[in-house]
Design goal:
34% of the residues lie in helices and 23% in strands. It has 319 residues and is of the alpha/beta class.
Length: 319
C-alpha cells in the first residue's frame, strides 16, 4: 500500500491562456477544476495507473465538499478528517508551452485536536513495508517539525517515508531519516543556501542533504530530467516531452512513479521520469495511464555530466 498524507489539500482551478501579460486582461481558452495538494496528486497518479493507494487529508467548508466530490469522480480512495475551517482554492494560469503561473492560498488553520486526528488516521493504516508520502505545505497552526514527527512514527510502524516539502518542514524532516526526499531545484537551493547552476551543483547539494539525514534524494530538474542520489550512487534520467500542455503536478507524478517503481535504484528513476513525461502532456495536474512508449523515451546515465548547465527558464518541465 502507498499512503499519502496531505495536510493542506486544495481544489485547483486551472485556466489556459494564450500568454501571460502582467497587468493585462486575459481570456481563458479552457478551464479545469481538480482535487489537489502534493499527496493528493500522488494518489491520483497512482490510481490512474491501477496501483493501490489511500489519500489521507483534512476537509472543511464548501471547497472541502467539492474536493471530496472530485476525488470520488476520479475513484481515488481517501479518508477525510473533518475540520472547522474551509480548505483552500488555488489558481493556476498555463500557457501553450506548458509554463504555469500558480497562485496558492494559505489554507485553513488546524487545531491541535484536528491535527491529532489526522496523524492518528495515518498511523492506524500504516503496516510493515508500506510507503507513506508526506508532502506539501503545512497548514497554519502546525509546527515546522511535523513531518519529522510523522517520519519517526512511520518508521516505528515498519513503514518507509518519502518527504516532499520545502523550507523548515524539509530541513527539520531530514533529522528523522526519510527514505527519500524530492526537492526541485528551487527547494534545493533554499535548503543549501546557494545557487544551483550545473548538474554537478545539484549532485553536491543533494549529497549535503543526505549528510544531514536523508537516505536518498530524487531531485526534479525541469526539462533536465531528474537525479537520484544515494547509497554511493548517482543516476541522471531525462526524456523529451514532445507536446507539453502543463507542468502542474509533474513533480508529484515524478514521485508517484518512483514509489511505484520500488522507490530506489534505476528502475524507480526510469519509472519516475516516464510518469512525469506523461504528466506534462495533459492539461492540469492529471496523470494519464503511463505507456511503454513513455518508458521508452527515458534515458539514464550513471555518469552525469557535472559541467552541464541547467535550464532555468520555466519552460515545460518534468518536475
Amino acid at each position: 500500500m502507498i499512503i499519502t498524507l496531505t495536510s493542506n489539500p486544495s481544489v485547483d482551478r486551472t485556466l489556459e491562456i494564450a500568454s501571460l501579460t502582467p497587468g493585462g486582461v486575459h481570456r481563458a481558452t479552457a478551464e479545469h477544476e481538480e482535487p489537489s495538494g502534493k499527496g493528493v496528486n500522488v494518489s491520483r497518479a497512482l490510481t490512474s495507473n491501477g496501483i493501490a493507494t489511500l489519500a489521507i487529508l483534512p476537509v472543511g467548508g464548501s471547497a472541502g465538499a467539492q474536493l471530496q466530490s472530485l476525488l470520488r469522480a476520479e475513484r481515488v480512495d481517501f479518508h477525510a478528517i473533518a475540520i472547522s475551517e474551509a480548505v483552500r482554492v488555488n489558481i493556476s494560469l498555463t500557457e501553450p508551452d506548458g509554463r504555469a503561473t500558480k497562485i496558492n492560498a494559505s489554507g485553513p488553520e488546524l487545531s491541535a485536536a484536528e491535527l491529532r486526528s489526522l496523524t492518528d488516521a495515518l498511523l492506524d493504516r500504516v503496516h510493515d513495508g508500506d510507503w507513506v508520502v508526506a508532502s506539501g505545505s503545512l497548514p497554519r497552526g502546525v509546527s515546522g517539525d511535523y513531518y519529522a514527527t510523522v517520519c519517526g512514527l512511520v518508521h516505528r510502524a515498519g513503514g518507509r517515508l518519502a518527504l516532499d516539502a520545502s523550507g523548515q518542514p524539509l530541513l527539520a524532516g531530514l533529522s528523522a531519516g526519510p527514505d527519500v526526499i524530492k526537492p526541485n531545484l528551487e527547494e534545493l537551493e533554499e535548503a543549501v543556501g546557494r545557487p544551483i547552476q550545473t548538474l554537478g551543483d545539484a549532485v553536491a547539494a543533494a549529497g549535503q542533504l543526505i549528510e544531514r539525514g536523508a537516505r536518498s534524494a530524487l531531485v526534479s530538474m525541469g526539462r533536465d530530467g531528474a537525479l537520484l542520489v544515494g547509497a554511493g550512487r548517482v543516476l541522471h534520467a531525462w526524456a523529451q516531452a514532445s507536446n507539453p500542455r502543463s507542468t502542474i503536478g509533474a513533480g508529484d507524478a515524478l514521485l508517484a512513479g518512483s514509489i511505484a517503481g520500488g522507490g530506489e535504484g534505476e528502475t524507480a528513476l526510469r519509472e519516475a521520469v516516464a510518469w512525469a513525461t506523461a504528466a506534462v502532456g495533459v492539461p492540469g495536474s492529471r496523470v494519464p495511464a503511463v505507456t511503454e512508449r513513455d518508458r521508452s523515451l527515458v534515458r539514464v546515465s550513471s555518469e552525469p555530466a557535472h559541467a552541464h548547465r541547467l535550464h532555468r527558464d520555466g519552460a515545460a518541465t518534468l518536475g
